[in-house]
User: Fold this.
Amino acid sequence: MRTQFICGYFLTGALLLWSLLSQNFEFLFYDITTLVLVALLHKGDQHFTFSSKILWGFNIWIVLHILGGLATRGWRRALFISSN
Assistant:
């Protein structure tokens, strides 16, 4: 298994655990969906052999996207905060 997939599975698993511990159950569904995306990319890589840059970019996207969903500002989720 390529390092990028080990990293992707680890990141989504760790963030899945984080969302469980922070009791963010609405985000739990999204995190499971992201884990499925990693698995689909892994399966697709067996047929197409994606470049290393694409796979690392996907891992960076996972981190930024999921951490953005877990971020809070006060008592609100950052995703739904207006500038007011």
The chain has one domain: 3-74. The two ends are 47 Å apart (CA to CA). Residues 3-74 form one domain. Residues 16 and 31 are 6 Å apart (CA to CA).
